[in-house]
Design goal:
CATH class of chain A: Alpha Beta
Helix content of chain B: 10-25%
Strand content of chain A: 35-45%
Structural class of chain A: alpha+beta
Strand content of chain B: 25-35%
Helix content of chain A: 25-40%
Distance between the termini of chain B: 41 Å
CATH superfamily of chain B: Beta-grasp domain
Number of domains of chain B: 1
Radius of gyration of chain B: 12 Å
CATH superfamily of chain A: Molybdopterin biosynthesis MoaE subunit
Shape of chain A: elongated
Order of helices and strands of chain B: EHEHEEE
Oligomer: heterodimer
Distance between the termini of chain A: 36 Å
Structural class of chain B: alpha+beta
Number of domains of chain A: 1
CATH topology of chain A: Aldehyde Oxidoreductase, domain 3
Largest sheet of chain A: 6 strands, antiparallel
Chain lengths: 150, 81
């Protein structure tokens, strides 16, 4: 089972996957592609991953959440080009009540961003591109016109 | 001398112009030694001295000693979500 997909993600399908009669609290987080970054207009982006490790780390994160709270959690992340406004990542967490659902959902998205080997290359309105790097000054590594990177 | 595959992703693959290199695995070779080798290749100087490195898909520190048959991967800072 992989969390990675090149197709549009349906949050309803994830919610259905974690729903059960005894789970009355369901939290769903959708991370959508936004049209700006660091003050620049974004026209599109592309995700890539170390697929096998991404799945292994994601499985560990989901197991951590399900052992820490009485919940069932589902996760999907897009790969390849994703248009503005579409879901890049979706987390659904369902438990008996809202507290554990919100907590588990928050835990999973934060750990995914921190630990899962997925990368993002953005295209801007001026035609330039950059690799997103949360640790870099300005958060980006520009891609030069000749395709090389800084 | 045995060699070891090193996988490169995203910006690091762009920097070196390839997604996989085979490096010699010298006796006692550490992750730091492999990174030093990569940084000496054309384009590799922009790779940080202490990048995230995974061996067999588990993150390790610079003193880790990969073994023949291991899969080493250099990971740019994660940017998912």
């Amino acid at each position: 089972m992989t969390i990675l997909t090149r197709d549009a993600i349906d949050p309803g399908a994830l919610i259905a996957a974690v729903s059960a009669p005894e789970r009355g609290g369901i939290a769903c987080f959708v991370g959508a592609v936004r049209d700006h970054h660091e003050g620049r207009g974004v026209v599109g982006l592309e995700y890539s991953a170390y697929d096998a490790m991404a799945d292994a780390v994601a499985a560990a994160i989901l197991a951590e959440a399900e052992s820490r709270w009485p919940v069932a959690v589902a996760l999907r992340h897009r790969l390849g080009p994703v248009p503005i406004g579409e879901a890049a990542v979706v987390v659904a967490a369902a438990g008996g009540h809202r507290d554990e659902a919100f907590a588990a959902c928050r835990y999973v998205i934060e750990e995914v961003k921190r630990r899962v080997p997925i990368w993002k290359r953005e295209r801007y309105v001026d035609g330039s591109e950059a690799w997103v790097d949360p640790t870099a000054a300005g958060g980006l590594h520009p891609v030069r016109d000749d395709g090389t990177v800084s | 001398m045995p060699s070891i595959p090193v996988l490169l992703f995203a910006r690091y693959a762009d920097l070196l112009g390839t997604s996989r290199v085979e490096l010699p695995l010298t006796d006692g070779c550490t992750v730091a030694d492999l990174v030093r080798h990569l940084r000496s290749l054309p384009g590799g100087e922009a790779i940080p001295e202490r990048p995230f490195v995974a061996v067999n898909m588990v993150q390790v520190d610079a003193s880790h000693r990969p073994q023949p048959g291991d899969e080493v991967a250099l990971l740019p800072p994660m940017a998912g979500g």
